Amino acid sequence: MKLFSNILMLAVCMAMFAACDTEQPAPSDEGLVAVELSLDAVELTRAFSNGQPVDIDRVLLLPFVKEGSAGTDADFRFDQNLAIQVDVASFPTPEIIMHLSGGNPYKIVALGYKSADYDWSTKSGKFAIGGYSLEDTGFWIPDATQAPVVYMDVCSVNSAEEFVAANALQIEGTLMRMVAGVSLSLTAIPDFVTGIDLVATGDLTTSIMLTGTPAGTQSPGDDLSRTLATLSPVRGASPDTGTVDFNGYILPSSANLGYQLVVHLGISSTQTYTVMAGGATTFPVLANQASNLSGDYTTAINFGFVMGTGGAINLDDPAWDGIN
């Protein structure tokens, strides 16, 4: 039933945009003002232990025009006809020209991703976007264990006076990863271990695009996969020097997430261990951040992993994330 509801959610997201495509007339140049955007992209703030470079080559600009007066993001309605998708070769990008209706404030959601992961022109790929206002627009992926690399920024055009001040308004934005990273490294794996699964306990499947607020999670008894990856130890000269390095992305969540290691001891025998670090069994899943867990097999399995560079997450410690 949960699997069916997730498939239905994807269908609803895509249907909403399909309806916009068929019901709204094509935009004309009348009343539109050119806006020049230049976007940069930065690497993961709380970096993976092995580094993850920026590797996106497509940008989608979603304009939301202000129509309400509640003073919240619910005031901004998606202006479907003025959205544009552009392939880019490098960052910062050359100026991207889009056109907005003059006289109204806008918020422009800029998404960056791999061209192989999504195509706005066909509304197809590894994720779906759906909603009416900026407040409720959701970001959905069909497989919570395989979140694509997506960056995001929100640029604002605050008033009609900004349009009047120049024929071509210039805006700059910085794309940051909107997905969360998970990195787990295990060393000194004995030779009787033939494989290891990294399993999440409750992956997020849907989130509100702007805030990352959970809008749908996996639940006990559903048919959805929780295995982030399965790896065989890479062995050196000694049989007890096996290593595995898990690195992946999941959607962010305001709630912490737990993990398990399923250790394969041959063809059919397995043992399951809860991942621990510093006494914690759940870890932050925040946008543009990564949980880095590392340790040798015996110590990590029995006593816990080392978290980050200081043994535990410390958001106030610039040495942990590089931010002062």
Which key features would you list for this structure?
about 325 residues; eight-stranded mixed beta sheet; mainly beta; five-stranded antiparallel beta sheet; Immunoglobulin-like; disordered N terminus; 4 helices; 2 domains
Task: List the topology elements.
Elements: H1 2-23, E1 32-41, E2 58-66, E3 76-78, E4 84-87, E5 96-101, E6 106-113, E7 118-119, E8 124-125, E9 128-130, E10 138-140, E11 150-157, H2 160-165, E12 168-177, E13 180-189, E14 195-200, E15 204-208, E16 214-217, E17 227-231, E18 242-250, E19 253-264, E20 270-274, E21 282-285, E22 290-296, H3 297-303, E23 306-307, H4 318-321
Parallel strand pairs: 1-12, 13-22
Antiparallel strand pairs: 1-5, 2-3, 2-4, 2-6, 6-11, 7-8, 9-10, 10-15, 11-12, 13-18, 14-17, 14-19, 15-16, 19-20, 19-21, 22-23
Instruction: Report the major sheet.
Output: 8 strands, mixed
The CATH topology of the largest domain comes to Immunoglobulin-like
In round numbers, the mean pLDDT is: 77
Which residue ranges are poorly predicted, with pLDDT under 50 across at least 5 consecutive positions?
1-28, 309-324
Q: Under the CATH scheme, which architecture of the largest domain would be assigned? A: Sandwich
